[in-house]
Amino acid sequence: MIWRVEIKQKSGLLDAGGQAVLKDIVDLGVSSIQDVRVVGVYLLEGQLSREDVKRVCQELLVDPIVEEYGFSSSPKKESQAHSIIEIAYNPGVMDPVEASTLKGIRDLGIAQIQAVRTAKQYHFWGALSKKDIEHITHRLLMNKLIQHAVESAAQAIPTTLTLGAASKAQFDVLIVELLKASHKDLMQISKKGQLYLSLNEMKTIQAHFKKEGRNPTDVELETFAQTWSEHCHHKTFRGIIRYREGQKGRPKIIRSLFKSTIAKVTRDLNKKWCVSVFHDNAGVIAFDKDYHVCFKVETHNHPSALEPFGGANTGVGGVIRDILGTGLAAKPLANTDVFCFAPPDTPARDIPAGALHPKRVMKGVVSGVRDYGNKMGIPTVNGAIVFDKHFVGNPLVFCGNVGLIPRGKEIKQVNKGDLIVAIGGRTGRDGIHGATFSSGELTSQSEMVSSGAVQIGNPIEEKKLLDALMKARERHLYSSITDCGAGGFSSAVGEMGAQTGARVDLDKAPLKYQGLRYTEVWISESQERMIMSVPPAHSDELLKIFDDENVEACVLGEFDGSGRLQLFFHGHQVCDLDMRFLHDGIPLITKDAVYQPPKLKAEKLADKENLTDDLCAALSHFNVASKESVIRVYDHEVQGTSVVKPLVGIHTDGPSDAAVIAPRLGFNKGLAISNGINVRLGMIDPFWMAASCIDEAIRQIIAVGGSLERMALLDNFCWGNPDKEDRLGTLVRCAQGCYKAAKAFGTPFISGKDSLYNEYTHQGRSLAIPGTILISAMGILEDISKAVTMDLKKTGNSIYVVGTTFDELGGSIYLANEGQLGQNVPRVRFPTAIKTYQAIEKVVEKGLIASMHDVSEGGLAVALAEMAFAGGRGITGFVKAVPYQGKSRHRRDREDVILFSESNSRLLVEVESRHEKAFKQMLKGIVHAKIASVEASSEMMVYGLKDQVVINANIFDLKQVWKNPLF
Amino acid sequence: MIKNPKVLVLRTAGTNCNEETAFGFSYFGASVDQMHVHALATGQSKLADYHILVLPGGFSYGDDIASGRILANELRLKLGEDIKKFIADGKLVLGICNGFQILTKAGILPGLSSSTGQEATLFHNDSAKFEARWVHLSVTGGKCVWTQGIPAQIYLPVAHGEGKFIPRDSKVLDALRGNGQIVFRYRTASGTSPSYPDNPNGSIEHIAGICDPTGRVLGLMPHPERHFLNHQHPFWSRLGKKEKLGDGAKIFENGIKYVKENL
Predict the structure, then answer these.
(1) Each residue's pLDDT tens digit, A523-544
(2) Residue A120 to residue A103: CA distance in whole angstroms
(3) For this structure, is A231 an active site residue?
(4) What number is the ipTM of this complex?
(5) Per-residue model confidence as pLDDT tens digits over A813-841
(6) Which of A220, A375, A565, B186 could form a disulfide with B59 if both were Cys (CB 3.0 to 4.6 A apart)?
(7) Interface check B105 vs A, CB under 8 A
(8) Which of A762, A784, A806 is the last residue of a domain?
(9) DSSP H or E stretch at residue A227
(10) Residue B222: cis peptide before it, omega within 30 degrees of 0
């Protein structure tokens, strides 16, 4: 029997949740509502008496101070002006509250509870049309992929909450007719099964089975599809590319773009402190005498496009598991999150069908990150949000995690005879085909065909997993571990058993509900699961540890030394594949790439007397504007490690350059984390975009007092369809930029990832994202007490610019605000940049710097303003003093170019007068000049080339202008 | 005289500030165990073996249903008598953030009557969202053993979505005032009465932390363990302070000192 309980706040109290919904509704353009109240609904299934349910309410579900409850059969309207919308989860979608509510009820001694589901009821007072209700429901309250509006009494109280209990699936092994298939049939099989395998790949598989003399089972084909997917195998980066510059250029053969650019940097540099690069779930570098640190950044773009909360949520969960699956498990220290969205003020008419409004995407993504990161107890310390209209159908969500691992624990080795143990969450139908789904383009139909790929995470399940894992690691109970990400058991067991072979009893996997087919068990991407290999002698002790932490752990089979992948279900063998063919049999693909430099218009600049308005426009550009409203919903200080927080300065609201954490409490060694991303530069030249992003990521770490000495990089490419030669051309050019810059700086790549096929096909038109590279960096600080922040410190101090400003407005915020892209893309002068950074390091070491800020989007003008308002100090500056090198004699030197150019490798440095002499001495041979001084007033005054006033503003007004857009 | 104070930092699914909280007590020489509630509930370990019980921050059981609710019930139902005895024996209890929510919902704080009914709650912030920010707190030491010798105003971070303190009724509020149980209140930087965001959640009377009538049980929403070290201060680089410790450290020191001198 099912009981339905409604819980509402006592009257007279502020319904904060209701007020927040009301605000969002006004934002949507519906202004006729006076009040909103939110009511919680619980459905309880089991042989419960009325007394039981009363007790559950009084002691568990209701807060007696502020809430009251009632039993009801369905929502009731009070008047004409009262509307009710109730939103519930679809059957099969995990209800995030179910597991703990069941526990809470059982703790009361009520053991007969069987299932719990929750719903939310929204009560609106005000005149609402049917259309308004529809609008609010679908635009705001629910996502039909995971939720529905309760519309009938039968839905309000369903007959049962348990899923699939009755439908024990008939068992039969599905054989796919492959041997006799024509080419057309092969493609049909690939398409119908959502395998995303090419004809050539299908033919290779067909030939293999011809040799075996039998047809494959469905699960065997699925295993190929997963293992050979772009997502898992990175076919584009590993394959052969015929690259030409210009349609008529001479083709150059690139054998593995990955090995010839990204991995080549690391190999060429051959740094001793690179402990484990590229082959594990994260890159590992040496930290101190006891520990290494590791870093991984993943993307979760497709799922976030469809279900922003769930997509970002599981993206964070996934990258944390990458860190747990590095070596024999690292402990997560920090999250980083970088997003690309269309601007929040995009008009509704510009949103393609099937896509969500960027405002909603952003809200969902930020909430998803907050939910998972905060509940895992991992501080979110660094990030960026980039806005560009091209991301309207295809947002980008990069989730990063940094971990700490004891020396020696980076080594893992599956041994023959080890048991295959699954740990963590249960397996359901969630996320079927996630790996293959992300290897294709999104369409306006994606939400229909791929809804199985959408999931919601359960951070507490993963937190328990982490707690148990740390105990098991300490006792040396397992030999290897990896996470179940895309591809589920298939990818985890398949990868771990590549050398030994594996035998798996799929019946043993703990299921969320009955009725799953063997293929579903094998490729399900249910969250919060990992696979470990455990020597049989340790299995009892290991299982006990997990049991004590209330985490399920279960032996699925054995890494048996057969060299084959054998799966069993209900006593039948359903899969028998040669591991070597599975992993090495994929045919190399050849793709064509053409890089054609875009035809760009030269920038046109009007003559201006005063640039104060332009400074305000730059500060309020979404990309520059304060991200405080996002940063504050992330717990960025849990674990107590923070040294330089994302928000710094006298009012704790200035934008810091990089995060610094001290991973070991009580120790002075620090770790700086930063990122570089700038998509507009790539529209001019992807090569210089890559170089600029690398320079920016490095520069930010230098700006907080880090060193170039032990700095490591990560690359994340998000690109359009690489089967199209123009997209692949820009990708190659970007990878070449990565090689050139990282090699020059001596900063190896230690990990990376590519997410391709970021296109959105709508009504036959393909909207590709601008090719985007995210460079993440981490560097070591020997002594955190020498870390530097960007807020001005003291009246009377001097402000120096270090580095030359060039005529490089291309891709700048200044031009963006003029509606132009330009063509003078910022370059990096590597030898000069390196000398600059090395010199700055020494000055930091001597403690001569009061504050320092990297000069990036918005140029010198924005950087100066940010330093001023973060420190609550005024500035007097002189454009004339800025070391500037114009492009040519074609135009005179201009204040706007000098103040807003985004040339690389520049830093602003505040120095106390007593240190100036020493500072200048140490910067001998490096371009630097005093361009401003710190004032007691609240004014920012900047004088132009003819000593005229070009900027004159109150710093607190500037701060407000900078804070408003995203608040 | 206790030479070696023993601290139990209790954790369960979703607890996450246990390590830095444990660090604070170890720093002052305590021997600290971070223990799963399962070990106490099944009798594998005994609460009575410890001098200080700490409920650290985090999201116990995901804060599902309501923050701290499920662990509060677990304590009440499985360990209620043990905890009562623990307090009656003159020992100390500290609840930080989620820990404060748990102590309140379990009826241990404010602890006005001997029954276990709830006398106050910590409810959703008026802003309806989780927020991490630093707050200024006025400290009224009074009889609370944890806050002796702490400056009249300190600076600590909060990070919560459900921190609005609401007493059951005016009688409870009057009793809290009368007994000197209101230990921490949100304030502006200059010490005046705050509005949002200086009061980050809309707490009644700007209450940020309270103790029980004995002064030995303390619960607070802000995180003293996150301002244990000077460099955790959000603008330490402006202050030029040479001390290693931050505003929150004294609370840990006081707990240990009290055990050494009084138990």
Answers:
(1) 998 899 999 999 999 999 999 9
(2) 21
(3) yes
(4) 0.97
(5) 999 999 999 999 999 999 999 999 999 99
(6) A375
(7) yes
(8) A784
(9) helix A218-227
(10) no
